[in-house]
Amino acid sequence: MNKTFKPKYELTVFNTLSRKKEKFEVLNPGYVGMYVCGPTVYNEVHLGNCRTFSSFDIMYRYLLYLGYKVRYVRNITDVGHLVGDVDAGDEGKIEKQARLEQLEPMEIVQKYTNLFHNVMQQMNTLPPSIEPTATGHLIEQIEMVKQILNNGYAYETNGSVYFDSQKLIKEGKDIYDYGAISGKKQDDLLTETRDDLKNQSEKKHPSDFAIWIKAGPRDIMKWPSPWSLGFPGWHLECSAMSTKYLGKHFDIHGGGMDLQFPHHENEVAQNVGACGCQPVKYWLHTNMLVLNGKKMSKSTGNSILPAELFSGNNNILSKAYSPMSVKFFMLQAHYASTLNITEKGLQAAEKGYLRLMEAYHVLVSLQHEGQENASGDDAQIHKMLDLAFEAMNDDFNTAAALAKLNVIIPKINALKNGRLQMDQIKASTLERMQAVFKDFIFEIFGLLDETKEAAQEDGSNLLDDAMQVIIELRQAARAQKDWATSDLIRDKLQAAGIQIKDGKDAATWSKS
Ligand code: AMP
Ligand code: ZN
For residue 235, how far is its CA from the centre of ligand 2 (angstroms)? Predict the structure, then answer.
């Protein structure tokens, strides 16, 4: 890409490191390197995790829309992330789940990676450019430990290697002020360091953290290294893999706010220790999805899974909500604000999503008749479209962008029913509106069309109609106690991959 590359619009982003909105200026004109901490694949992702990954998907999509060539790296944590609970000892999350489910750790990894990918697909997020795994990058991680040791930023005790936080605090201060991302003072860092290891006595200082851990007798996932048969510390993978795929210094690093400390703080420490430089120009953090006033979290049981939400099969909500209603619900908040999930909020989002999609269908059906007596409405439409982009350029504010598009919806409906004459807007305005709505809905927000109109177009509700006829015929047979016919219909459908469920009042069907 040439040096004169200009994005479609100029962007500002809130950088956690400076705690300010900054002009987004890439390191290499035309290119963006973006790393996002991915899931630890030891159980199903909950809706909070999805919020974070959907938010970064929107950023990825918008950067692409602006014309950047983006390398988006999102890792899979499949080793090293320990159970934080002291009572549980220093067991790895994946190993613990493997014991529970009586599977190989790698079967757990595969199972929950597949489920994660399914959910990401249901939410219509784009796959990252590279999705590296921690276990696939042991060599790179061991190399990084060696570099950190060589530079004197780590020490070995009894087969484990620890990062020397005090050295960074004293000598690396000019490169990175340890605590800057999380905003923690050094004293807090000390008291809040939740060490993953039982053996505190191996460390010189309580805020030192393990970068290589000697395996204990119970550990299954372990690899040879110059120090011991063991495994990498959790933070190390992100330092090693971001450096490998994006270089020592890259544009964006993202993750949920709860990762600021210790994960991101320690990631930077490791990069400074290995390379002598700060890795990231812009740190972006998403805020938490909240349920019942508390952060959604699997370990506390305060969570809802995407599948439970999409099927309606849960104790929290009265009905099912489609993936796009849920996505719309998330778009209605800025990524850096907390978002409280409630039934009311989901209902409103479902309505809002349908309203937008219906307006889009009306909009594409509108035709200009050539006459132009452009009015205030014409000017207002342009203004709102401009403001929708301004909102996105202001730290990816999807909530404000949606609000601006919503102002235009009554005008679209008025054009359809004649309350607003077509000659009141210019032909070029109609064209722009059609193009911008299409771009926002599909390219930038990544919404899919779940409306009846779309289903009709691709024939998917034809099957629904046909199934209703079959179900009625079967009900008629049952009413006459013709069990042979009723069972025949059920069995033949089952063989064709369709499951009939007899309810109290009616029968339903699903693909089996
Ligand atoms: P984990 O698999 O626990 O490492 O989490 C994956 C991602 O989801 C991380 O970026 C977390 O910060 C993020 N995350 C976890 N809980 C929530 C929540 N309640 N709301 C939003 N993001 C979350
Ligand atoms: Zn990470």
Answer: 6
Residue to mutate (ligand 1; options 34, 51, 52; most atoms within 8 A of CB): 52
The rounded distance, in Å, linking the Cα atoms of 238 and 255 is 11
CA distance 21 to 393: 11
One-character DSSP codes across 56-125: HHHHHHHHHHTT-EEEEEE-BB-S--B---GGGTT-BHHHHHHHHHTS-HHHHHHHHHHHHHHHHHHTTP
pLDDT tens-place string over residues 120-155: 999 999 999 999 999 999 999 999 999 999 999 999
- CATH placement of domain 298-455: 1.10.730.10
Bridge partners (DSSP) listed for residue 508: 501
Domain boundaries, the chain: 12-286, 298-455, 461-511
Closest ligand 1 atom number to CA of residue 303: 19
Q: Name residue 431's amino acid.
A: E
Q: Which atom of ligand 1 is nearest to the CA of 298?
A: 16
pLDDT in tens, 53-92: 999 999 999 999 999 999 999 999 998 777 653 333 467 8
CATH 3.40.50.1980 fits 12-286, yes or no: no
Query: How many whole angstroms from 140 Cα to the centroid of ligand 2?
Result: 15
If residue 501 lies in a helix (H) or strand (E), which one and from where to where?
strand 498-502
Report pLDDT digits (tens) over 398-439: 999 999 999 999 999 999 999 999 999 999 999 999 999 999
Q: Look up the pTM and report it.
A: 0.88
Question: What sign has the CA pseudo-torsion 320, 323, 328, 330?
Answer: positive
CA angle, residues 467, 473, 479, in degrees to nearest 5: 135
